[in-house]
Amino acid sequence: MLKLQYLGHAAFSLTDGKYVLLIDPFISGNQLAKVEAEELNPTHILLTHGHGDHLGDAIDIAKRTGALIIAPTELANYCENKGARSHAMYMGTYHFDFGKLRMTPAWHGSSIEEKGTSIYLGTPCGYVIYLGGKCVYHAGDTGIFGDMALIGRMNPLDCALLPIGGNFTMDPEEALEAALMLKPKLVIPMHFNTFPVIKQDAKQFVKDVEKKGLKALTLAPGESIEI
Ligand code: NI
Ligand code: MN
Q1: For residue 163, which ligand has an atom nearest its CA?
Q2: 1 alpha carbon – ligand 1 mean position (Å)
Q3: What pLDDT score does 16 carry?
Q4: pLDDT tens per residue, range 103-143
Q5: For residue 124, which ligand has an atom nearest its CA?
Q6: CB 139: neighbour CB atoms within 10 A?
């Protein structure tokens, strides 16, 4: 059993009833979010990169709950220096207490502005998460790349969380092609409509994915499903 809750933008909470994995918790800065960062009690926080709309409330939540932050090494070290517990990784696989986690590539950037300068935080990433007997791919912020076919071949994806906003990431046309490579049982779009520059018609994206014989659905911020 796996319960998946969409928290808005690229933020999701996944739980098997024992472990709670929070991904990219951009909550207090997101006007569309329907939960409060203070209500979230994860055991682990997965970060795909250091941009503010992904790092979000991660450090505050980690310090309050003791949750372990999992991130690419430079970002993990940044969080550790701010007082959070962290586990540093690069592209590859590690077996955590909750299950197997693969860090996957993403074509994007990773930096944070501090005191007027940009601090670079290493490579951005995505994740393949094995939890509760299910397998979920969170692509992170990324453009399309052909190795998504390899990710799909190596992992029996129950669900793929794909950015469709365009400009910083794949747009709906690219995300549709990504879905065809990944072959998940379910596609859920993310990273759209939070800002004007990433406005997209997610309902149309769902229709276009379903025309290709894959299942897809949109979740409103705060909404949950069981997969
Ligand atoms: Ni980003
Ligand atoms: Mn982003």
Answers
A1: 2
A2: 30
A3: 98
A4: 999 999 999 999 999 999 999 999 999 999 999 999 999 99
A5: 1
A6: 31
CATH no. for residue 60?
Answer: 3.60.15.10
Q: Give the residues across from 163 on adjacent strands.
A: 190
Q: Token pair for residue 131?
A: 């939890």
Q: Are 79 and 54 in contact (CB under 8 A)?
A: no
| CB count in 10 Å sphere of residue 15 | 20
Q: How far is the CA of 225 from the centre of ligand 2 (A)?
A: 23
Q: Are 69 and 62 in contact (CB under 8 A)?
A: yes
C-alpha 137, offset from chain centre: 8
Ligand nearest to the CA of 75: 1
Range of the domain at 144: 3-226
Total domains present in the chain: 1
Predicted TM-score (pTM) of this structure = 0.98
Phi, psi of 75 (to 5 degrees): -70, -40
Q: Which residues have beta carbons under 5 A from ligand 2 (an ion)?
A: 53, 141
167: Cβ contacts below 8 Å, ≥ 6 apart? 197, 198
A 10 A CB-CB count for 3 gives 17
Q: Residue 188 Cα, ligand 2 centroid: separation in angstroms?
A: 16
Residue 161 Cα to ligand 2 middle (Å): 13
In the chain, where does DSSP find H-type helix? 52-55, 58-65, 73-81, 148-154, 172-182, 202-211
Classify strands 44-46 and 20-23 as parallel, antiparallel or unpaired: parallel
* pLDDT, tens only, 182-199: 999 999 999 999 999 999
Q: Name the closest ligand to CA 53.
A: 2
